[in-house]
Amino acid sequence: GTMEDEKRVVYIKEYTNNILKAINDGCNVKGYYYWPLADTWNWDNGYGGNKEGLFNIDYNDDDRPRYPRASVGFLHQLIQARGFDSAAVRDYHAYPADRDEFLYDSFPSGFMWGAATSAYQVEGAWNTDGKGPSIWDTFC
Questions:
Q1: CA–CA dist 49, 46 (Å, integer)
Q2: How many angstroms separate the CA atoms of 57 and 38, rounded?
Q3: Which residues, 6 or more positions from 51, have their beta carbon under 8 angstroms from its beta carbon?
Q4: Which residues, 6+ apart, have CB-to-CB distance to 73 below 8 Å?
Q5: Strand, helix or coil at 31?
């Protein structure tokens, strides 16, 4: 849950590198979406209890400002490089012993990147700005 989230950087690096290996082995992988984009609601602790997002949300501030964690910088570099072929991404917080296990290559053209979140309901009511009831308003 800290801003210097090296464990998340390592997770994203290892996970996306294994996706790249799978693609090179013939798997038809179309994209990678990270969840959650921002800190979300947690069944045990409510808002602010889940500090797994790429962006930290200050729930003590009524404006709910967002602050990017270190993993945002890594993911940005990975997407810009479209893989592990640039020195900036290849060496980003990598442990020297692990470097030989990584595939230094690029993702194919058309590979999609994204992030998802379920925290969109934090800012407003169900009827704000013309929004009608969602499945969650009906379901819950």
A1: 6
A2: 7
A3: 1, 2, 39
A4: none
A5: strand
Q: Model-level pTM greater than 0.90? A: no
Q: Where are the beta strands (DSSP E) in the chain?
A: 31-34, 40-42, 46-50, 55-57, 66-68, 112-115
Q: How much of the chain, in percent, has pLDDT values that exceed 90?
A: 21
DSSP code, position 39: -
Instruction: Assess contact for 93 and 14: CB atoms under 8 A.
Output: no
Upper half-sphere CA count for residue 45 (Cβ side, 13 Å): 8
Q: At what angle do helices 6-24 and 70-81 cross, to 10 degrees?
A: 20
Angle at the Cα of 96 from the Cα atoms of 111 and 32, rounded to 5 degrees: 15
| Beta pairing partners, 86 | none
CA pair distance 99, 87, nearest whole angstrom: 12
Across all residues in the chain, what is the average pLDDT? 77
Are 57 and 39 in contact by the 8 Å Cβ rule? The answer is yes
pLDDT digits (tens, 9 = 90+) for 26-66: 999 999 988 888 776 666 666 656 677 888 888 888 888 88
Helix, strand or coil for residue 118? coil
